[in-house]
Specification:
four-stranded mixed beta sheet, single chain, 16 helices, 534 residues, 38% helix, alpha+beta
């Protein structure tokens, strides 16, 4: 069967193209003429949850929000509850318990001499609501002790205790390879645990082939990968490459301004495929879908080996059970890597079974998951972007270098050579050339303090915007880009950094017909807000 499917990327271009096309048809459930009937899909209708994650919007699944703005997991733990004590009022205090939204109760407090005199307070958004004793104002008449009149309390944070749940949860070691310690979003781990138990039951009941290496006892080989770790590693390598290009091409800069002038043409040639910012990296092919926290990989096969995919998965005796079981627990299967399970967090119009697990953590919709489990990348990254520019400048900076000067009074040395060292020089060998006056250039050195003091925020914003335009497949003309940059800098001056960056990224990642005015930006942001409410 290997003659129909590629085993690596080393074959000839024509053969590889044909074999990839055969696999694409096979995995999509479309009978291909070159595929023998014996190995064609048994279910020609295919499987709706067997997805091509290299195509269309699915390519960015779990890495961008609904407006296509890059996002990453917000590792801030989920607050389950906060407990503590209130201030003293009317000669008593309460213990309290509230949820992450500040809603809950100041728990019941009783009169020290008469337990039948008691009350509690409701807490709404962190504010204790007024309450009084259950018998007020007749407590003394009924029980011989004065009750508490209507009153409130303040919540003390000092001494309070917060109970949290981490968003990234580790898998049960029972279902993990010994040399790994993977995790994923908490509800994804819960769903996978139940899926593995379903396979265990099927083994005990004899429903599936126990000899199958990957599809009998499910094991986690890979899951969540931190986008920070991935980007940091990528960035260091990228910066080393840029520094090498500077060195090999003898590009030297007197200061940061000259450095930037030399850097931008390089980025124009490469940044679309090799982005420099973390924001663009998250959307690129350099960043795997694993950074979404929604992925579980149950094998470690070679992605380029289509033959193994067909033999070990599609033609497995347990394939049908695997596909149906994954669907019943809310997992999609990557058609191009059938060992990769990806949580389906869709809630409308069809609700995924995965949402039953998400509900346990307070997520009732796709929007709930995106808003509470993720954060946009650009706000936190922007400050690092400025530091990264200084880091890259320092990587490319030389200690000193010499340049010719026409003024013999301003040099540190003269060099003398002969005509033979100049190719094509018509003068005979040995003819001395006149001395060349040279002066030394020592590139400017910056600390972070002096760097940020010398260049205003507007400079860094303009540089960030220009690089982001280079990285994205933007439809904006050059004059439109300039107008948008000017408008966003005006937004920064009027409404602050966050508003400026949010506006820019929303418009850049979801392009409109741009008219080049600040009022246009505001209209588009209003349109975006209206979309979010629908």
């Amino acid at each position: 069967m290997a003659k129909f499917y590629a085993e690596n990327n080393k074959e000839g271009a024509r053969s590889l193209f044909i074999k990839r096309a055969i696999y694409k048809s096979f995995s999509a459930g479309i009978p291909a003429a070159a595929v023998p009937p014996a190995v064609r899909k048994r279910n020609e209708e295919g499987y709706p949850h067997l997805i091509n994650f290299n195509f269309g919007e699915k390519y960015l699944y779990g890495r961008v929000d609904r407006l296509f703005v890059p996002m990453e997991i917000d590792n801030t733990p989920i607050i389950d509850k906060v407990t503590g004590i209130t201030s003293t009022n009317a000669n008593h205090m309460h213990k309290y318990q509230i949820d992450k939204d500040g809603n809950g109760w100041a728990l019941e407090a009783s009169h020290p001499n008469e337990s039948r005199i008691r009350h509690m307070h409701q807490i709404r958004k962190g504010v204790v609501q007024a309450a009084q004793s259950n018998c007020y104002p007749k407590c003394e008449e009924l029980y011989g002790e004065a009750g508490a009149p209507p009153h409130t309390h303040n919540l003390f944070s000092k001494g309070s205790r917060t109970t949290t749940t981490p968003k990234i949860k580790k898998f049960n070691p029972k279902f993990v390879r010994r040399d790994t310690n993977p995790g994923a979003l908490n509800f994804v781990v819960d769903a996978f645990s139940d899926l593995t138990q379903q396979f265990e039951k099927a083994v005990l009941l004899g429903k599936i082939d126990t000899q199958d290496k990957f599809l009998s006892t499910l094991k986690v080989y890979k899951a969540y990968q931190s986008p920070k770790g991935l980007y940091d590693s990528y960035r260091l390598t990228y910066f080393d490459v840029i520094a090498k290009i500077f060195k090999e091409n003898k590009i030297k800069a007197r200061d940061y301004d000259e450095f930037l002038k030399n850097l931008m043409p390089m980025l124009l040639r490469s940044a679309k495929t090799n982005p420099i910012t973390k924001v663009a990296f998250i959307k690129s092919r350099r960043c795997p879908v694993n950074c979404s926290g929604l992925v579980v990989e149950i094998a470690n096969l070679d992605f380029s080996n289509d033959y193994e995919k067909v033999v070990k998965f599609y033609n497995s005796n347990n394939w049908e059970f695997y596909v149906q079981a994954c669907a019943s627990y809310g997992f999609m299967i990557d058609r191009n890597a059938p060992w990769r399970l990806i949580a389906d967090i869709g809630s409308d119009p069809i609700r995924s079974p995965m949402m039953d697990y998400a509900e346990e953590y307070g997520f009732n919709s796709t929007n709930d998951i995106i808003e509470n489990s993720y954060k946009t990348v650009h706000l936190e990254y922007y400050e690092n972007f400025k530091k990264n520019l200084l880091e890259l400048y320092n990587k490319t900076k030389v200690r000193s270098y010499y340049v010719p000067t026409d003024d013999g009074t301003d040099y540190v040395r003269r060099i003398q050579t002969d005509a033979a060292s100049y190719t094509g020089d018509p003068r005979p060998f040995g003819t001395p050339l006149p001395p060349t006056a040279q002066k030394v250039i020592v590139p400017q050195t910056y600390s972070q303090t002096t760097f940020f003091a010398k260049y205003p925020e507007e400079h860094f914003l303009k540089t960030y915007f220009e690089i982001r335009f280079i990285e994205e497949e933007s439809q904006f003309a050059d004059n439109e880009k300039d107008l948008m940059i000017d408008d966003c800098i005006e937004l920064y001056r009027a409404n602050g950094l966050a508003n400026c960056l949010n506006s820019f990224e929303r418009i850049l990642n979801k392009p409109f017909d741009y008219s080049g005015s600040l009022s246009y930006i505001r209209r588009q942001l209003s349109a975006i807000s209206n979309e979010e409410e629908l």
